[in-house]
Amino acid sequence: MELSVLLLLALLTGLVILLARGHPKARGHLPPGPRPLPVFGNLLQMDRGGLLKSFQRLRDKYGDVFTVYLGSRPVVILWGTEAIREALVDQAEAFSGRAQIAVIDQVFQGYGVVFANGERWKALRRFSLATMRDFGMGKRSVEERIQEEAQYLVEELRKSQGALQDPTFIFHSITSNIICSIVFGKRFAYRDPDFLRLLDMFYQSFALISSFSSQVFELYSGFLKYFPGAHRQIYRNLQEVKDFIGHSVEKHRETLDPNAPRDFIDTYLLRMDKEKSQPNSEFHHQNLLNTALSLFFAGTETTSTTLRYGFLLMLKYPHITEKVHKEIDQVIGSHRPPALDDRVKMPYTEAVIHEIQRFGDLIPIGVPHKVIKDTNFRGYIIPKNTEVYPILHSALFDSRYFDTPDTFNPNHFLDANGALTKNEAFMPFSVGKRICLGEGIARAELFLFFTTILQNFSVASPVAPEDIDLTPRECGVGKLPPIYQIQFLSR
């Protein structure tokens, strides 16, 4: 009998056994939700448009806190600003666990600062925050490095002489170079073939992670992992990047000066040496590779994708672009580079950047959490280790906090006097103990890159503003803007 037939018989036998056990049961008293099927969970309630649309429809029936079964496992969904803040802020410790994303679990396996839990996560997060804050042990500030990269960018865009181009590559390059200077202590030339290869791996992977097939994989990863699919390509891509990081670590080890650490890797290696006699130390090679990968990937993809959305929106709404140009001319002028101190004097530009982040909705489902203990929440008992999805989209498009949530409108962040206002629903970096540790660097990058480009260039497209389509290319874990062409014309 052929192996494929034996596998099919084994699968069918397992399915019959699972069906015989009845529907899944969970400890505690979970929030309401649709009744799941054995094995398949709430497959029948899933929308072909993906998880976000499915959750949106279920929220209309079950309220802001409900349970869905992704396959056989229950997941608690938090919808809306209040529900998310009550969980991640008011009960921050209980909801501080990190659940895995199935398509990249084989890459990280619970190691590294983003996907670690318990003492491992706490130790790596404290170290990463301190090291990124010190940023190369005081040689140059993050602001200076971004300003320097912004000038390289201006030179590169001038070389294009206003030709149409896809901005993906250039935005990837500038944001990646900032995180590279932190992690590896160097920036790369924009045409460096190794650099281009790494950026392509990240770009492919983020698109695949956000694809519909990866959302299906999230439901049935235990079964689908044995078959070809996006998860295997993602693994190959990110493993190639890890190999690059591994070679960089070897070079750092060979040239390490304990008295003059150059970057994140040097600082980590020194911590490894300090704790090498401690058997339970979290500062080992596996955590170094996965933390560096996490910072490298997140530091490249998130800000570059936000900038891509931002300039597509500037093409779509030229009257808003003109107002930003006017404020830049009034506050900064043309004879010096933008600085972070300019932010307080540029409320309109800041409001536009906030609205780009809100409307761009980069991580709509949010990176999954889990509760680290049995947790009482709104009268329900969520059992320890239950996964929790804080749907960031539901806060960023919350009509209770934004007058016209489905419209790109910088006035969402301005008061009647034109001053920048705080909005509790604005959480593009999430909230609570698991808030993005690169938030400060990302905010600095967005302001300095955005203003430097618009200080030096106007933007144009062969497509009329009213015909520019904002429909995302992918919308899953991440949301990717459509591919488009843009001209950067010297002012």
UniProtKB/TrEMBL annotation:
Pfam families: p450 (PF00067). CDD domains: CYP2B (cd20672). It is a peripheral membrane protein. Its cofactor is heme. It catalyses: an organic molecule + reduced [NADPH--hemoprotein reductase] + O2 = an alcohol + oxidized [NADPH--hemoprotein reductase] + H2O + H(+). Residues 1-22 form the signal peptide. InterPro entries: Cyt_P450, Cyt_P450_CS, Cyt_P450_E_grp-I, Cyt_P450_E_grp-I_CYP2B-like, Cyt_P450_sf, Cytochrome_P450_fam2. Keywords: Endoplasmic reticulum, Heme, Iron, Membrane, Metal-binding, Microsome, Monooxygenase, Oxidoreductase, Signal. Gene3D superfamilies: Cytochrome P450. It is an enzyme of class 1 (oxidoreductase). It is found in: Endoplasmic reticulum membrane; Microsome membrane. Its EC number is 1.14.14.1. Cytochromes P450 are a group of heme-thiolate monooxygenases. In liver microsomes, this enzyme is involved in an NADPH-dependent electron transport pathway. It oxidizes a variety of structurally unrelated compounds, including steroids, fatty acids, and xenobiotics. Belongs to the cytochrome P450 family. This is Cytochrome P450. It comes from Pipistrellus nathusii (Nathusius' pipistrelle).
